[in-house]
Amino acid sequence: MRGSALGAGLALLVSLLVVAPASAADTAAEVATSLGASIYLRGTTAAATPVEASRSDGQTVQGAAAACVNCHQRSGLGGREGRSYIPPITGRYLFRSVSQSGRDPDFAYVEGMRPDRAPYTDETLARAIREGLDAQGKPLSYLMPRYALGDAELAALTDYLKQLDARHVPGITSTTLHLATIITPDADPAKRRGMLDVMQRFISARNVRKLGPAPRIMGSGKSVYAKTPEMANRRWELHVWELTGPPSDWERQLDRFMAAQPVYAVLSGLGGGHWAPVHAFCERAAVPCLFPNVEAPIDQQRDFYPLYFTRGVLLEADLVAAAILRGAGGPQAPSVRQLYRAGESGEAAAAALAAALGARGLAVSSRALARGESPAAVLAAEPPADVLVLWLHHADLAAIGHARAPSGPVYVSGLLGGLEDAPLPAEWRAHAHLAYPFDLPDRRRVRVDFTLGWFRMTKIPVVDLQVQADTHLACGLLSETLSHMVDTLGRDYLIERLQMMLERRIVTGYYPRLALAAGQRFASKGGYLVRWAGPTGRGVIAESDWTVP
């Protein structure tokens, strides 16, 4: 769309959006920002027309593939593409040079910044976007597309880049970095205690540790040292946000917590059968939610701020579905029955499994246990099925007692049941397959021993090793990421830096590998189906290689 046509479209959009008491200038600014955000984030104009661009090698991109966010990221602070550094393009980095701003505390070092480049003007920035020439008239990298943007589109994009600079980040003062952890009322009390022990000891140890100065790049390009606020002075302060009442009221409670004390990020946390309101709050409030301990995460890949280590029981449902479908090649489709307790995490897993098998033509009979209802009684009363799936927690598995073992395969949730410690009766084990969304015990031993050593040193009692190991891992990842960010502490940039660093981490606890590519929200993608090595004991044997459904 060219300048004149876009100008008419923009004027029409402004006329539709003008509402009292906003002034015409205020509304025009909002529309321009919205247009700039649409170009930057989605590669579309205000009329949803795909933006078109071409690279110096002749390749043409359009729409989402042409969106600036693909390379310069949501924060505008850039990153890496293979061996290439993508420079920051927020206003403070475009319109000032490092040599001019080397002693400006608001001008922090960012990996990929160009220390010797002359500052841009609106005119030279327009030339860079349209023609691929930098502020000094030199060709930009072949990675940088040349955009066919009209004047109004270009102005809106420029304004958006200028407002990307976060002058004040909520939850950060000159001395303190405020963090929250969120605990739902249906969370397990023992896991709550274990998680908080780890977080409080980690933060106490970090706050008393003498931190050295952080490197900063000045105009000469040489590393010098300056005592930046984050590295030298800021202490972490943890706020425990305990939710009460029904899930329908949790977002209101979280809004009140945030208004009373803004936080920079939500770290770890603990949920029971419901987590969706917490996930929705973090996405709406644009606050990072880093690796909460939840059995049924919210699988919304388009969201940006919540990150999880694994898909939990949803991943287990995929592993079980694949196994059932592999065994369903006979002349008659197998009957599948699953058992879960209403209101707990197994309910989400049961729905996911029923949907996955239903899409392949297999009907699933699902039975929800009511409060106080015995799983043994239900299993005795229900007619037998070819395949039985148990989405039950440790206590319910133990309550199966001496119920007759089925003759067909039984699939059990490892995450809910306690992994290799799941208390399945001995006679059931011969038929049982355990969904296992972690690395195998012997393979993770060295990585978990590191964490156990820290627990012993800090005198933390182990009440749930997996939850506590994940909590320790989340705390360590945040600390390491902040140390690399120096004093560029935007919330979006925190997510982006964590994504870049994650796959290089060696100590990954229960997981063989962690990685978060752009748009991914789950750091560990796969798991196993295992069987017990015998009628008693904790030994398990993998039935297949690590599988990513």
Notes on the structure:
It contains 20 helices and 19 strands. By secondary structure, it is an alpha/beta fold. The radius of gyration is 27 Å and the shape is globular. The strands form five sheets. It has a seven-stranded mixed beta sheet. The protein has a five-stranded parallel beta sheet with strand order 9-6-10-11-12. A three-stranded antiparallel beta sheet has the order 2-1-5. β13 (336-341), α13 (346-358) and β14 form a beta-alpha-beta unit. 39% of the residues lie in helices and 14% in strands. The protein has three domains: 3-163, no CATH class; 176-307 and 443-518, Response regulator (Rossmann fold), CATH 3.40.50.2300; 313-436 and 529-542, Rossmann fold. α12 packs parallel to α13. The longest helix is centred in the last third of the chain and has 21 residues, at 465-485. It has helices spanning 3-17, 24-42, 69-72, 91-94, 98-101, 122-131, 151-163, 189-208, 229-233, 250-260, 276-285, 313-326, 346-358, 375-381, 394-398, 414-417, 426-429, 441-457, 465-485, 491-502; strands at 52-54, 60-62, 79-81, 84-86, 146-147, 176-183, 214-217, 223-226, 235-242, 265-267, 289-290, 306-307, 336-341, 364-369, 387-391, 410-413, 432-436, 528-532, 540-542.
Percent helix: 25-40%
CATH class of the largest domain: Alpha Beta
Strand order of the largest sheet: 14-13-15-16-17-18-19
The CATH topology name of the largest domain reads: Rossmann fold
Shape: globular
* Average pLDDT score: 87
CATH superfamily of the largest domain: Response regulator
Beta percentage is 5-15%
Q: Please compute the radius of gyration using only Cα atoms.
A: 27 Å
Question: How many helices?
Answer: 20
**What structural category do the secondary elements indicate?**
alpha/beta
Strand count, sense and barrel status of the largest sheet are: 7 strands, mixed
